[in-house]
Amino acid sequence: MEDSKPGEDIPNGQLVCEMKDALNSLMSQLSAFGLKVHVLQNRVVITERSESGTFNVVDGEAALQFVNQPEHADKIICFNSERFYCHTEYLVLRSQYFRALLCGVYRETTMDLISIHLPAPGNTEPILHFMYSGIADGALFEAHEIFNTIQNANFLGVEELLSKAAEHFATQWKVFAISPLFRRSIVDSEFVSSILELGTKNSVFKEGDKLRIVVLWNEEGTENNFPESSRLLIEHRCLEKTGIADLDWALDKKPGLFNALDQSTFRVVYQRAIQDSARVRENLRVHEDKIKSLSQCLRTLTRQLEEVRCSRCQLFLPRAAMKTRTCIVTRHLGEYVVNKGWSCCRQLIKRSKGCKPVSLSRHCMSLNSNERSR
User: What is the spatial distance between Cα 130 and Cα 136, in angstroms, rounded to a whole number?
Assistant: First the structure.
């Protein structure tokens, strides 16, 4: 009988069973000490026992409980220098990048530790929160952070977050568009197109705002060569509601942008300028008519307030007293003549007929009776 080497007489199946029993025994001992073993594909993570329930893919705030939690995690993702325990089910939920990386033929599908270099530093955890829950932290869209958010979300292919960033950008474009980071290497033409589309849809743009956004976006092209900007101007009809002042500003800011445009593109601007000119002339005519009417009223009121002097007794009498049927009490006697008005010493006679009074007031009658008695 030949001598056999150690281990050759033990079947492979029996060896595997013994290894399983030893591993189960070790896991039982760890569990007795209040520890829990998480078996990844190529790695084992031992953590304290958690009383949370089973792992389910949920949405909203309920999903935040799984962010950076080793329990049920099957991946450790290193974003630049930060490590996070992640779940493939959540990573592929909203990210095109992880969907292609972890559900395809790449080797990362069998790796437990994956290193990813994001184009912009910071805001990794808020973006991870959004990928799990779909809830965006407002800090992602602040002036000092929004461009980092755009770069990282674009790299990871998180379209929902990019859409929210574009919507927020459209509402505060006057603050963000003047930043030196608003350039082609950070903000691509697709994102600028989303800004124009969402801003138009939500009616947040005024006349000429779309043109200003495209002009302020630095395409970093060669002199007099801006193909993406020209395409955005035509696709989003940025010149349709642009006034002459906005166009003049754009021509002064980036004249090379308009050299490549066809002349027919400016036809709508020309027609709009003609319409605006006609509307301005009509408004000017209406205002001039109002000014003439008000001037006439002012002259009439001024004449009414003037005083005239009686050529006989030299007494001043308001001109308005001669044109109304109201009795004006004066120091001396006067006479009211029907259809003629008041007269002082019968020297001031109203030329126009004016209003015919229904009857004389008591004061008028007393004045006439006193005069007759004298």
Answer: 5
